[in-house]
Amino acid sequence: MTLLAEQVLNGLQFGVMLFLLAAGLTLVFGIMGLINLAHASLYMIGAFAAAWVQGRTGSFALALLAGLAAAAATGVAIEVAVLRRLYARDHMDQVLATFGMILFFNEAMAMLFGRQPLMAAVPGWLGGSVEFIPGVPYPVYRLAIIVVGMAVAALLYGLIGHTRVGMLIRAGATHRDMVRALGVDIGLLSTGIFGLGAALAGLAGAMTGPLLSVQVGMGDRILITTFVVIVVGGIGSVRGALAGALLVGMVDTLTRAFLPGLLKSVMVATEADAIGAGLSSMAVFILMAVVLLVRPRGLFPAHG
Amino acid sequence: MTITRRAAIVAAATLAAPSLVRAQGAAVKIGMITTLSGPGGYLGADIRDAFQLAADTGMFGATKVELVIEDDGLKPAQAKQIANRMLKSDGIKLFTGIVFSNILEAVAPDVLEEGAVYVSPNAGPSSLAGKNCHRNYFVISWQNDSLHESAGENATRLGYKRMYLLAPNYPAGKDAITGFKRFFKGEIVGEAYTKLDQTDYAPEMAQIRAANPDAVFQFHPGGLGIAFLRQYQQAGLVGKIPMVLVAPSLDATTLGAVGEIALGMDVTAHWNSDLDNPANKRFVAGFTERFKRMPTYYASQGYDTALAIAAALKTANPGNAEAFRTAMLKADFASVRGAFKFGANQHPVQDWFGLRVEKGADGKLALVTKGKVLSNHGDAYAAQCKI
Questions:
Q1: Do A117 and B7 make contact, defined as CB atoms within 8 angstroms?
Q2: What domain range is B265 assigned to?
Q3: A232, A252 Cβ separation under 8 angstroms
Q4: Which residue range(s) make up the domain with A174?
Q5: Which of A7, A103, A281 sits opposite B206 (nearest CB)?
Q6: A85-97 burial by CB neighbour count: b if 16+ within 10 A, else e?
Q7: Residue A289 pLDDT greater than 50, yes or no
C-alpha cells in the first residue's frame, strides 16, 4: 500500500513535468498550427543554462531564472527568425525545419558544453526526504516539482480563463482569421505565446537538471511522450494538456512498477519481467490509441 | 504523429554528414562507425580519440591508415546505411567503432557477408559469440556476459546473499542479467528491465526499497548510470543498500559526475587506469595530456583495438581476409590491460579485476584496483563456436 502511494507520487511528478512541456507545445500547435519539434531543444537549452549558472554561482534560484530566460529568449528568437515563415506552410515543411533546428541546437550545445553530461546539484534546502506518508521517505525536491507544476497550472488557468490576453489566446485557437480581422496583432500574440511556451519548457529543463543528467539530446527522448500527451489531451487545450500529462505520467509509472508483478501471478517470473517491461513501454501508446478511438479529438478538444 | 516520425527519418538520412580524416598516399582505409551524438556520444568520442591517439603516436609504424569516421546517432538503420555506403562506394574492407550491441547486430551481418573484417572495440553480444560466430569477426573488449559474470563472482565473494538486478531492455541488458546469474550463488529477489531511453528511475527505486535486498546489481551505461546513481542517493538508498557494478555503469566520466555518492561501491572491469604495465602507463599519460581528461575504459578498448589492428596490418592486408585473420589471431601487441589472447570464438580471454571507489591522497575520488576476480576468463559461448 505504501509502495502504491509512493508510485502514485512518482507518477504525479512525471505528469507535472510532462505538463510543463506539453502546455507550450499544445498552445503553439493549437493557435499557430505549427508542429514544433524544436520544443525539445528549448527544454535542453533551459537545462543547460540552469546547470551552467548553478555551477558558476551555486545559486539554484538564479539557475531557475537563467533556464527560464535562456529558453524564452531562444524561443522568441527562433519564432521571429524562422518559424513565423512556416505558419502557413505544410506540416511536413514545419517538421523538416524544426527537426533541422534540433540537430543545430544539439550540435551547438555539444560545441559549447561538450558531450559529457553536466551535473546540477539539488539545492541544500530542498535536499533530503520527508516522510509525510508513514514508511515512505519521499525526496523533498520531487515534491517541490509537483508543487511548482501545480502552481504553473493554476497560473495558466487564471491567465487563459480570466484575462483579456487569455481570451485572445482562446479566440485565436478557434478562429484565428476572425481574431486577425478584429484588428488584433496576431503576430505579436504568436510571439508572446511562443515565448511563454518556451519559458515553460525551460523551467521544466531547469528543474530536471538535479534529477537527471543534463546532456545533448536529452529533450529528443521526452518529445515523443509530450506529443502523446497533447494528442490524448486534445490539441490546443491547456486543460487537456494537464489532464493528458497526469494521465500519461500515471499510466507510464504505474505500469512500469506493477505490470511485471501482476504478470508474475499468471506466468514464469523471467518471462513476466521481459513481457512486463515491453508492455509497460507500450502502455502510453495503447492509451493514446484507445483515446483516439473513443474521442478522436482528445479528452478536452479546444476547437468547438 | 506518423507524419512527424516519417519526416524525422527522412531528415536524419539527408542530414547525416560524413567527416573524413585523411592520411597521405595509398593507405589502408578503416571504417569507424560509432556513436558520437546523443546521450551515448562521449562513449564513441573516447573510442575515436584513443584510436586516433594510437595512430598519431606512431603505433601503426610504416603502415599508412586512413580513418573514415561516421556517427551512427545510436540508430541501427542509420548505421546500416553508412556501412553499406562504406562497403560499396568506398571499398572499405576493415571496420570498427560500434559502441552499442543493437547497432552491431544490425551492421555486422552486412559487413561480414561482403567478406570484410569487423573488429569490435566495445559491443560483444551473445548472438554473435556462439553458433553465429564468424571468421572475420573479432572482439577486443569482451563478450557482454563475461563482464557481468565477473560482477556475479564479485557479489558472491563479497558475501551478498539476496540481490536485486536491473538492466535496460535491449540485447546487452539481457546478456547482463544472464551473465550475472551464471556466476552468482545466492538468491535473486527481483529483476527489472528499464527502458533504454529512460532517465527517471523513481518507480524502480521504490521497488528496490520494497524488496530490501542485500545489494543491488545494475547495468546502466553512460549518462543512464549517472541518473540512476543520483536518484539512488535522492531516494535515500546510498549507504543502506550497497551496489555491485560493472565498468560501464561507473567509469571515470560517470564517477566525476556523481562524486561522493559512489564512494565505496564495488566495480569489476578488465582494465583500470592504475594497472601497472608500461603500455598502460604510456596510454594513460598520452591520453590525459592530449585530451585533458581521464581515459575511460572505452578509450582503453579503442586504443587496444588500434594496437591489435596495427599488429595485424604489419604482415597482412584486410583485402586478403584469411591472411589478415591469421595475423589478427596472434594478438601480437602489448594490451593496456596486461594479458590478452583470443579464445576459440575470437573473443578475448583475459583477467577481470575488482575495483573500489576510494578517496585518494589528493582528496579526489578514484577507482582503485583491489585484486583479480577472475583469471584467464573466456566466455560461455566459445564452445558453441565452430570455425
A1: no
A2: 145-269+352-383
A3: no
A4: 13-123+135-294
A5: A7
A6: ebbeeeeeebbbb
A7: yes
* Percentage of chain B exceeding pLDDT 90: 66
In tens, the pLDDT along A50-60 reads 999 998 898 88
Mean predicted lDDT score pLDDT of chain A: 87
pLDDT of B313 reads 94
Residues B334 and B360 placed together within one structural domain of the fold:
no
Q: What is the largest CA-CA distance in chain A?
A: 67
> What gap in Å lies between CA B299 and CA B278, rounded to an integer?
17
Q: Are residues B36 and B53 in the same domain?
A: yes
User: Looking at beta carbons, which residues of chain A come within 8 Å of B257?
Assistant: 116-117, 119, 213
* pLDDT tens-digit readout, B281-308: 999 999 999 999 889 999 999 999 999 9
Average pLDDT over residues B32-38: 88
H or E segment to which residue A138 belongs: strand A136-139
Q: Average of pLDDT values for B86-94?
A: 94
Angle, helix B278-291 to helix B297-313, in steps of 10 degrees = 110
The verdict on residue B15 lying in a domain is yes
Question: Cβ separation of B203 and A37 shorter than 8 Å?
Answer: no
Please state, in angstroms and rounded to a whole number, the distance separating the CA atoms of residues A252 and B169: 16
Phi, psi of B33 (to 5 degrees): -100, 115
The reply to whether B16 touches chain A by the CB within 8 Å rule is no
